[in-house]
What we know:
The structure holds 2 protein chains of 2 kinds. By secondary structure, chain A is mainly β. Helices cover 0% and strands 72% of the residues of chain A. In chain A, strands 1, 2, 3, 4, 5, 6, 7 and 8 form an 8-stranded mixed sheet that branches. In chain A, 37% of the residues are buried. Chain B is built from 6 helices and 6 strands; from the N terminus they run H-H-E-H-E-H-E-H-E-E-E-H. Chain B has helices at 2-41, 43-56, 92-109, 121-129, 147-163, 210-285, and strands at 76-82, 113-119, 136-138, 168-174, 184-190, 205-207. A 5-stranded mixed sheet of chain B has the order 3-2-1-4-5, with helices on both faces. The mean pLDDT of chain B is 90. The A-B interface holds A 6, 8-13, 26-28, 38-43, 61-63, 65, 67-68, 72, 74, 76-77 and B 38, 41-42, 44-45, 48-49, 51-52, 55-56, 146-147, 150, 202-208, 212-213, 216-217, 220, 223-224, 227.
Amino acid sequence: MTLRVSVISPEAVLFQGETQSVVAPAFDGEVGILSGHAAMVTTLGTGTLRLGDGQSFRVEGGFVQVADNEVRVVTEKAEKA
Amino acid sequence: MAKGRELVGRMKTTENTRKITRTLEMVATSKTKRAVDRVVAARPYATALADVISRLYSPELAADFPLLRQPEAEKRAAVILMTANRGLAGAFNSNLIREASQLVAKLDAAGTQVDLHVMGRKGIGYFRYMGRSMAVQRTDIGDKPTAADAASLVDAPMQAFAAGDLDAVYIVHANFRSVVSSPATTVRVLPVAPPQAAAGATDYLLYPSAVEILDGLLPSYVRNAVYRALVETFAGFYSTQRTAMKNATDNAGEMLTVLRRTYNRARQANITQEIAEIVGGAAALD
């Protein structure tokens, strides 16, 4: 079971693909997401977004939306770290 | 050969003009491609944002958000006009300026006080010439607009709106439909018109809460609307410039053909006359 993940900034889609897990810097601390996670929307703080395959992104603001093993990280500022 | 020399001069200038317009056409073509890519790349973010806002929004919440305030009368409004810094793009800038003038005239007639924010040298030049004062003049946004540029344009009016000093914010920009159509359009970005809810609502866990999430997303939504207007304006500008320069190149080519034909005819007439003179002179000697 994998997650379909997309990392979206206002200017571009930085990543789109499948991965095992997502660790995102939510407003109150890191939140880990694996497949089968309940539908959720949470706001992001500032920090590093880590994907299961070792990729990471610096993100700032925005939100994470999880539904049906699909994770959308929508952030105001993002760059590959 | 007085006429011939004059024609040679005109042919030279036309040839030079054609060189310039052709170069500009090629530059605009490559910039169009990049600008259109930006328009396309901006879509997923807008879709995702609109999707989440429409799921979280409910009319009962509207009272809690200054950005969703629906003023009864527009006492004071801001108009953000986006034009290009450069010309040579047919009627692109003048269409935008006309759209903005009409909007301003309409608001003036309704008794609304208008703050004019103008981006781009062409728009600034026009309103300065008309003697209209502008609240903000920007020429620093280049052809690669960023989300930060959009934020710098709209953040001040957005704060004024939240504080109740402004009752509406309009944007006049080019709506990029395709490379052959990018008409000037007016959109009202504030008060925010919440996007319509998509069918098939999922029950989301919301952290920290719907209100707090919306609170963060509404400004992003407004900024994104401005960012999209920016990238569309630039895409529209370059595609219009490309068309204008292509027409100019074609016209120069046509003009050259006519000039060359006239020149050759004049040259031919000259030679015929000279021969006639020589023949006439020789005949006189006999």
